[in-house]
Amino acid sequence: MPAGPARDTSRLLMDRSEAGRVGAVLPACDVPAQPLPDASLLRDGLDLPEVSEPEVVQYFTALSQLNFSIDTNFYPLGSCTMKYNPKVNDEMAFLPGMANIHPLQSAQLSQGALDLLYRLQGFLGESTGLDGVSLATLAGAHGELAGMLMIRAYHLARGDTGRRKVAIPDSAHGTNPASAAMAGFQVVDIPSDKDGSIDLEALRSVAGPDLAGAMITLPSTLGLFNPNIVEVCQAVHEAGGLVYGDGANMNALLGRAKLGDLGFDVAHLNLHKTFSTPHGGGGPGAGPVCAGPALRDYLPSPVVAQADGEFTYTLSEPPSSIGRMSGFHGNFGVLVRAYTYIRTLGAEGIKAISGNAVLNANYLMEALKDTYYLPYDRRCMHEAVFSADWQKARGVSGLEIAKRLLDYGFHAPTMYFPLIVHEALMIEPTESETRQTLDSFIQALKQIDAEITDDPEMVRLAPHSTPAARLDEALAARQPDLRWKPKP
Amino acid sequence: MTLPGQTQPRLTDGAFQSHYIPNTPADQADMLSILGLTCLDDLFLDIPEGYRNPPLNLPGPLSELEIQQELAALASRNRPLGSGPSFLGAGSYHHFIPSIVKALVTRGEFLTAYTPYQPEASQGTLQVIFEFQTMVCNLFGMEVANAGMYDGATSLAEAALMACRVTKRDKVALADTLSPTYRQVIQTYCQGQDIQTVTVSATSPDVDETTACLVVQYPNHFGYIEDLAAHAAAAHDRQALFVVSADPTAMGMFQAPGSYGADIVTGEGQPLGIPPSFGGPYVGLFATKQQYVRQMPSRLAGRTVDRLGNPGYVLTLQTREQHIRRERATSNICTNEALYALAATVYLAALGKQGLRQVAELCYHKAHYAASRIAQLPGYSLPIDGTFFQEFVVQCPIAPAEVNRRLLERNILGGLAVSEAVPNAMVLCVTEMCSRQDIDALVDALGEIG
Amino acid sequence: MSPDDRKYTQEHEWVKLEDANSQQALVGITDFAQEQLGDIVYFELPEPGANVEQLGKMGEVESVKSVSDLFSPVSGEVVEVNAALADNPEVANNDPFGDGWLVRLAISDPAELESLMTAADYESYISGLS
Description:
Chain A is of the alpha/beta class. Chain A has 16 helices and 12 strands. The relative contact order of chain B is 0.13. Classes of the chains: A alpha/beta, B alpha/beta, C alpha+beta.
């Protein structure tokens, strides 16, 4: 269907710019014109587009329609927890009394916001069993960096300067080693055992006086709960190290187990995963840091405290804080959404989230395990990790299967991660999809398996029905074209 | 903590049914029986028994109506900008936002999409990033820009780390006119890698052979335009990089940092169509020269072609990033602020070439009008001599905290106290949101207070 | 098949003396390596004048979604870097044993070649990997 030039996305803003068009009208200046500074300080031109307001709306709306999203498609993207994003959460964040408050206005003028943040700190502390909470970190990896800097500061404060190593399982997200390195640590890979758990003996072999700590994702990125997690935490503690928890997979554990009870010292939560705040095409997120007794005093600044035991709240700096991680007090708009979500659900609802998320994942796993190889055939948590090895042996890769799913209207699962599973397809349904959607997804994956027999070439060239066909990523990397340039 | 909440389950059969969970008790029972289980708790037997099902002390669930009432009550205890004249800036600015920004960023197709790792299913987000990168390059006069960072402060901290990687040096020089908050965030980021941070005079910055970069804010923390040409020379004379944190609104009027030879330019994207929202979410801007593109943090979208030869967009140069290079990545950043990069892109598309200049000029003229009137008030002075944009320093006859308290009695939000730099001084910010009437009210109030 | 006019490392680099008396040698990656990497998009190589050590890291090779270290098969000084790779890294995919060479070395100890694999050794080594 031809969309007409204004809605045709093939022309970029600068291509459609016409001199003299404006997309917004501003008020006239109501004060006397003031002397301008020296002309050498002022710029001549500014290359921004000149387009009218309807064109802007038509162009960006047309662009939006080229996307898959949770609202339009099932998104079984493992480790990303693409659950429904409640609309009331957005509406609460947009209240003028929330969206329009200045971060530096006095605490006295922001008591509602500080009260909300204080309560949210309490909710997150209660959910993790780690009751010191800072909300100032802006994404999961940002929380990881804060947590690792806290571990560093803890050891240094005790004069323990030789702890330079951090143990990280081979199944970890890439952010874990990257965050540990940014905090100045040397990363030691810990293999997984045959059940997909952390190899305790391998961990013990590196747990010496140079071990600062371990970074552990629970459930693991294989979607499995490590039954030996308590022993793992003990082994790190016995060596004088501390345990960091990557909370990316907390959708499995909400209300079912507390990281603090299991032995974790510090963890971050991904509010844009577990707590339903929208992912926005790559952010914003929020990655609050929750810490137990050993590390509470090192939390990033600021935290919200009650003043003088009264119902007034202030921003304060923990006594041994690693310092500020961000410009202000965290991604407040995201925090309002998460608060709204937790208040909407309550304790029972929170447990129903994890219960149904894990139920849906196991339901998918059971239905698909005869068609796709399941390298760890045991009860999964919120996600199931398959391998496309059987299909690969028949000439079609996991990537190609994932791309073919797009033709069925389903977003691709996470592919080739975790790295320790060959041809990995990591499927996380979340709690917010209907059983009918799960059934149609199961059908699609079985049908694709049949297509591999009937028409492998068609699968290999997928997708066929998306706005763009398979893109040449090698060309993009060899000859980077990273911005619009005028035609010569 | 005691908060109101329903304690009674809402279904007559006693099971809790959330409106966010489609599975009914009957669905659950049926699915569990397929798995050979009887209840949801059976799914969690891998959790050691003593740790399973701990008490969870959270208030009970609320209906949407109740939640709206609770949040409205919390919101009513905050003073929003717009409820009276506001002259507070210092890194978060009150600017006009066209209605189309919210309308477009709340479209579910943008709002509820994931990071565009599957390009065939994410051409919308990817093309927006490409537009954003183009606009950031043009604003700052730079060759390459990324898809955005968390905020202005972290963007600048990552620039300092990048300068250390590029120069293989481990000291960063921060101008004494840099925002103290930005300085603190840089220090936090630098502590892990034992990078030294030193404060240098903005009038004669001391840059030596061990300095990785000179970091300057433009306009600076106090609102004034620095001599970027001199700073660039000071840095480049010692083969250090020149890093500038620039206000994007000021770019509607003032020379781009790139024209002075800046090597990395960062900025807080909040002024570009993003509400102050008590400090976030915002978006960090980050641009550099082509030669340093492989040392950049965060995502980049690039243009390519698809299998059928049609143009399309992908995330590219991903080998820099944590999911591939892991502990040797240029940064650990993964989730960034894509939705607010979209907001900034829509804002800049709507305002365009003329509009951004108009906004900048409105801020400039109103701020200078306010400054010239305040300078005439007995007891008040403008202690800093220099070109400023929309913020300026006023020395008050009494402590700024007291001035602000008395302004608030007149429903005016005053400025940021900077008494540590200049006795009894505050930075006032005047944007296009302040009418002449607002400014006159401020001047009158200051006159009465003084 | 790997040509037998050169020696090989376990890290899938080759080194070839330019002529019998030469102290200069070309270094590259094997066909097996380029096949495993897929589309090569970028090489980071040492500058001319740099000294490299046998089996020491000398650079990196990137495909779209991987980064691998490159190791020098022998010690020596880099005298030339294959300029063609800067704009066309795919040459190393298309002709890994020929035009896709990476660097030319002035080798410091020809005896080091003795410790490397012959073509036949390398072929049997890679057949054991897959």
